[in-house]
Write a structure and sequence with these properties.
single chain, 132 residues, alpha+beta, 4 strands, 30% strand
């Protein structure tokens, strides 16, 4: 697995201590907007915002300090995610799946920065969409 996949999985998914690491004014009006905010925050190395737009379940599983430290440890300097395209938003009550395409550029771009398709689950909490 490429390092950027690890970093993306760490930030996007729900944090499960034993297996996979997957608020104040953060979170989007739509699931797709939350994914856009997530990509923007990663590109700006604003890992506090990534934490803030994560679900309550994620935030209860890991402290802000541990979360930010894990992202900083796995971030490859000079890497970016560009060309974000939301391809679908499937909303079912307070849960959603967003599928999107993104291209990783810079040092983390193994294979020449080709576009990849991703999907992430979101949950609506207090009227805002959160990752996880």
């Amino acid at each position: 697995m490429r390092r950027w996949h690890i970093m993306l999985a760490l930030a996007v998914g729900a944090v499960l201590i034993s297996a996979i690491l997957t608020t104040g004014g953060c979170g989007g009006d739509s699931p797709g907007k939350t994914v856009e905010d997530f990509i923007d925050a990663l590109n700006n190395r604003d890992f506090d915002t990534v934490y803030d737009i994560s679900s309550a379940g994620t935030r209860e599983s890991i402290s802000r300090e541990e979360f930010v430290a894990a992202l900083e440890a796995n971030w490859i300097e000079g890497s970016r995610m560009e060309g974000l395209e939301i391809t679908s938003e499937e909303i079912d009550g307070d849960r959603a799946i967003v599928k999107f395409k993104v291209r990783v550029t810079g040092p983390a771009a193994a294979g020449g920065g080709e576009e990849s398709e991703q999907e992430t689950a979101l949950v609506r909490e207090d009227g805002e969409w959160k990752l996880g």
